[in-house]
Every structure is written in structure tokens, then in C-alpha cells.
Amino acid sequence: MRKGGKAAKWAARSERLSAALRENLKRRKAQARGRAAVPLDEATAVDAAAGADRNDDAAGPQPQTPDFRRNRSND
Predict the structure, then answer these.
(1) What are the tens digits of pLDDT across the range 41-61?
(2) What is the rounded distance in angstroms from the CA atom of residue 10 to the CA atom of residue 59?
(3) Distance (Å, rounded) from C-alpha 75 to C-alpha 50?
(4) Closest CA to 41 of 59, 66, 20
(5) Max CA-CA distance within the chain?
(6) Residue 43 CA to chain centroid, in angstroms?
(7) Rounded CA gap, 53 and 58, in Å?
(8) Whole-model pTM over 0.85
């Protein structure tokens, strides 16, 4: 009589790895969002409070967040 011990072990391992990969992806996405959020420094906060107009072209290129989507659209 054969037992399904190996199959059950591999299935459990596969489930653990899948869960770990999902958590890792969530963590990486959160890190990427955190890096993309640029905090306001004191000079920018003072200018914004004074109502100074800011030229967005002079600010330079804006950082792009990584696109982790599986099916990216061609927008």
C-alpha cells in the first residue's frame, strides 16, 4: 500500500512558497510606492504656503514608479 506523503509535502511546500511570493510582492510594491512619494522639504513647504507659482518643467523629470502589473496596457 502506498501513501501520498511526498505529494502532500510538495503541495504544502508549494502553498508556502506561493504565500511567501505574494507577501514579497506586496512588500516590494509598498517600497516602490514609498520611494515614489517625495516628501516636501522646508523650502517647498514655505513656497507652497506663500502661494508662489512653481514651473513644473524646471523641476526636472519626475520619478516613475515601477509597473508590477502582469498585463500592461499600451496607454
Answers:
(1) 655 555 555 555 555 555 556
(2) 53
(3) 37
(4) 59
(5) 82
(6) 28
(7) 12
(8) no
